[in-house]
């Protein structure tokens, strides 16, 4: 990961923007969750975001303006059952992003979170398979978007990744120049 940031800086001759979109989702009852699983989720989602930002900041600070877009989740601010470690990692990313916006804003670096809801992606492809066998599915019903979506083979409504990509593209462009220190939810109205 760290080598990848250095390689990108060298190949591109600098950085104007960094988008931290990697993550992992694993579900478990909190009382059954191993410390290893907790650390894996926090390590990939939160610590991984920190490491990429830390390594990219010198290149970002070399510009008059630059932007960091970190992927959080609606799980950071709205309870999703069986996902305590995931929610903690994504809540940490939101707080981290706020701190970055304050610390580096006067130096021209913007920091923003996008908080996708149920979006068809690699992280959601097997979510149902990761839920505990005794999951209370009625707790998950509130996660349905109010806007039209694609129904997956599991019957789960999912938004299109292009919706998220469009928001990220706007944030790293001049159109997003006055947006920093906040989250933008992309959830089809799930939490309206």
Description:
This protein is of the alpha/beta class and 192 residues long. It has a single domain, classed as Rossmann fold. It contains five helices and six strands. The protein has helices at 2-12, 35-61, 84-104, 127-130, 161-172, and strands at 17-20, 66-71, 109-116, 150-151, 157-158, 182-186. A four-stranded parallel beta sheet has the order 1-2-3-6, with helices on both faces. The protein is globular and about 50 Å long.
Rg, Å, rounded: 17 Å
Helix content: 25-40%
The major pleated sheet works out as: 4 strands, parallel
The number of helical segments is 5
Kindly report how far apart the N and C termini lie.
36 Å
- What are the low-pLDDT stretches, counting only 5+ consecutive residues below 50? none
Q: In what range is the share of β-strand residues?
A: 5-15%
Q: Strand-and-helix sequence, N→C?
A: HEHEHEHEEHE
Features:
192 residues, alpha/beta, Rossmann fold, 4-stranded parallel beta sheet, two-stranded antiparallel ribbon, 5 helices, globular, NAD(P)-bd_dom_sf, EC 1.1.1.385, oxidoreductase, Dihydroanticapsin 7-dehydrogenase
A few lines on this structure:
The chain has 192 residues and is of the alpha/beta class. Helix content is 39%, strand content 14%. The chain has a single domain, classed as 3-Layer(aba) Sandwich (Rossmann fold), CATH 3.40.50.
Layout: helices, strands, pairs:
Elements: H1 2-12, E1 17-20, H2 35-61, E2 66-71, H3 84-104, E3 109-116, H4 127-130, E4 150-151, E5 157-158, H5 161-172, E6 182-186
Parallel strand pairs: 1-2, 2-3, 3-6
Antiparallel strand pairs: 4-5
Helix pairs in contact: 1-2, 2-3
């Amino acid at each position: 990961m760290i080598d990848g940031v250095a390689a990108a800086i060298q190949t591109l001759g600098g950085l104007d923007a960094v988008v931290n979109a990697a993550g992992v989702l694993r579900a478990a009852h909190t009382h059954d969750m191993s410390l290893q699983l907790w650390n894996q989720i926090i390590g990939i989602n939160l610590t991984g975001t920190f490491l990429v930002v830390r390594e990219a900041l010198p290149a970002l600070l070399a510009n008059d303006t630059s932007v960091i877009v970190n992927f959080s989740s609606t799980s950071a601010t709205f309870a999703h059952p069986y996902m305590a470690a995931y929610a903690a990692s994504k809540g940490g990313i939101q707080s981290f992003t706020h701190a970055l916006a304050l610390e580096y804003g006067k130096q021209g670096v913007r920091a923003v979170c996008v908080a996708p809801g149920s979006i068809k992606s690699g992280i959601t492809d097997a979510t149902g398979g990761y839920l505990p066998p005794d999951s209370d599915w009625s707790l998950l019903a509130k996660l349905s978007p109010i806007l039209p979506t694609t129904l997956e083979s599991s019957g789960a409504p999912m938004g299109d990744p292009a919706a998220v990509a469009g928001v990220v593209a706007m944030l790293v462009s001049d159109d997003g120049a006055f947006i920093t220190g906040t989250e933008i939810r992309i959830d089809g109205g799930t939490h309206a």
